[in-house]
Amino acid sequence: MTAIETTKLTKRYGEETALDEFTLRVERGEVFGFLGPNGAGKSTTIDIFLDFIRPTDGHAVVADYDPQQTPRKVRQNIGVLPDEYSLYDSLTGIEHIELAKDLHGSEEDTDALLSRVGLTDAGDQAVESYSKGMAQRLAFGMALVGDPDVLILDEPSAGIDPNGLQDMREMIRAEAEAGTTIFFSTHILEQVEAVCDRVAIINDGELVAVDTIAGLRDVFDRQSTLTLSIDGTPTALELGDLNGVSDVEYTDGTLTVKLRDPQLKSTVIAQVEASGVSVTNIEIEEASLADLFSQLTTGGDSE
Amino acid sequence: MSSLTTIARKDFKDSLRTRSIWVIAGAMTILCLSHILAFLSSPIADQHTQPFILAVAQFTLWLPLAAIGIGFKSIVGERTSGSIRILLGQPGTRRSVVYGTYLGRLLILATTVLLALAVMAVVVAFGFGIIGFINVLGGTIALLLFAFAWIGLTVGVSSFVASETRAIGLVMGIYAVVEPLWRNLILRLFAVVFTGTTQTPSQATVFYSLEEPTWYLYVNRLSPAEAFNAARYYIPDLIESIWYGTTISGPHAPNVFGVLVLIGWATIPVFLGYRRFEGADLG
C-alpha cells in the first residue's frame, strides 16, 4: 500500500504559486511530521489530499488512490482531522459519530469510539456546549471511524490547552502503535520532535528537507554543547582529535566541548574520566529543532 | 444507507433544531393567516367558493422569502463555517453533499409549509364553512411544487457562490425579478419583444380565459409565482376532471407548461449549482 505519495504537485492561484513541484513519499506505518511556518503550503497540500482543492499540475496518491480521481475511495480509507473546521452545533457527540459511521457504512460501537477519545460522559450533549478541546476530541473520534489506514491531522493542537495537547499526543501515539500511518502538519516544532519518525519541512510552497530529526541535525550541522564540571586539570586529553568534536575549551574547573556529532557525548565523558579527572556535573545543551527550523525558514546561515 | 440520504437526514435533523428556521416558519404562518383573516372579515367573504385555494394563494408572496431564509446558507454556510471540511473528510462526494442538503432543506420547508397550511385549513373550515377535498389535495400539491421551486433555486444559488453575502444578494435579485418586478417590468419587456408594445393582459384573466395571446400564456408562467397561481387552479381542476370525468375549464398546454416550469425551478438551479460546486476549490 502507498500511504502518501505526491509527484510534482503544483498549485497556482493566478500569478501566485502556493505549491511548487512538491514531491514526497510517506511510508506505510510511519508517523510523519509536516512542518512549516503558517502559509508555507501545508494546508494546500492537505486540501489536495482531501480533494477540497485541485492541483494545477502533478498528482497525489493517498491510501492507494488518487484523491482527484476517486475522492470517495480515499475518504473511505483515511481519517481526517482538518484545519479550520466546525461541527454541527445542534447535533450531539453521539450523532456526530453516527454521521461518520453512516457515511463509512461502519457498524462500530459508538460508545467505544467516544471512550477512546475521552468523551464518554459528553456523548449525549449538543456540540454547542463543547469546549474547543472537546470539539477537537470529537473530530478526532470521527476521524477514527472506519479504522483508517492513514490519519491526516492538520494542526491537531490548534486552540487546545496543554492538557488537551498531551491527551491528543497520546491518542496519536496509540493510533501509531496500532500500525496506522499518521501524517500531521504543524507549525509547532515540539510536536514533531515528540512523536514523529520522519519530518518534512516545507517553506514557501517548496520542500526544504525530509529526514529523521537526527538526520536533520546531521544535515544542518548543528552543535551540541557538553559542559563538564571536573575536579583537577585535564592533561593528556586529546579530545580535539576526535572526529565530530569541533571545539574544546577549559577554564577554571569547567570543560566545554562542542560536538558536531551528538552521539559522541558518552565517548567524550569516558575519555575525560579515563584521563584521571572526575566529572562532578554534566550539562548538555542540544541543538533544538527550533534553531534548525528558524534557520531553514528564514533562509538561515547554512546556505 | 447512501451518503446522500445520510446527509439529507443530518441536514433535516440539524434544521429541525435551528431556532431561526422556526421563527421564519412562524412568521410565514402569521403573515399568510393575517391575509386570510382579512378576507374573512370583508363583506364579500361568502362569495368565495374556493376558500382553500384562496388560502393557498396567500403563500405566493411569503413562501419564497421563507425558502430563501431557510435555504440560502445551506451549502455556502457549510463552506464558510468549515463544517464541510468535516463532512467531506468522511466518505461521500460533493454530489451527495449538494443533493443531500437539497433534500434535507426541501423536507424541512415542506414540513413548515404543511404545518402553516394545516393552521390555515382549520381557519378556512371554520371561517368559510367549506373546504373541499379536491381543493385541499390539488392546492397542497401546487403549493408543494411552488415550495420545491424556491428551495431548489435557493440551494442552487447557495451551491453556486462562495460567500453568504453573494448568496443572499443573488437569490434576492432573482426574487425581485420574478415577483415584484415581474408584471410591471419583465412582462412588459417580453411584450415589447412579442407585440411591439408594452401592453400586457390584465391579471384577472390568467387562468379562465382563452383570450390571452399564446406568447403571454407561456411567458407569464416562467415566473414561479405566476406558474403557481395558475397551478393552484389547474391542479384541483385536473384532479376533478379525472375523478368525475368532467371537462376542464382552462387550457391544458400552458398549464402543463407551468407545472414543468415549477419542476424546472426546483431542479435546474440546483443542478447548475452542483456543477459549479463540483469544480470549485473549497480550501
Tell me the number of strands of chain A: 13
Order of helices and strands of chain B: HHHHHHHHHHHHH
Computed Rg of chain B = 20 Å
Overall geometry of chain B: globular
**Helical percentage of chain A:** 25-40%
| Strand order within the widest beta sheet of chain A | 5-6-7-3-8-9
Distance between the termini of chain B: 28 Å
Mean pLDDT of chain A: 86
Number of strands of chain B: 0
What Rg of chain A is obtained from the alpha carbons, in whole angstroms? 24 Å
Gap from first CA to last CA of chain A: 37 Å
Q: Using the alpha-carbon principal axes, give the shape of chain A.
A: elongated
Largest interface (CB < 8 Å): A-B, 37 and 23 residues
Q: What's the SSE pattern of chain A?
A: EEEHEHEHHHEHEHEEHEEEHEH
Structure in words:
Chain A is of the alpha/beta class and 303 residues long. Chain A has helices at residues 42-49, 71-77, 93-104, 110-116, 132-144, 162-177, 189-195, 213-219, 265-274, 289-297, and strands at 4-13, 16-26, 31-35, 57-62, 78-81, 150-154, 181-186, 198-203, 206-211, 224-231, 245-251, 254-259, 278-285. The mean pLDDT of chain B is 90. By secondary structure, chain B is mainly α. Chain B has helices spanning 3-16, 19-40, 51-57, 59-71, 76-81, 83-87, 94-127, 133-160, 164-178, 182-195, 214-219, 224-244, 252-279. The interface between A and B is medium-sized, with 37 and 23 residues.
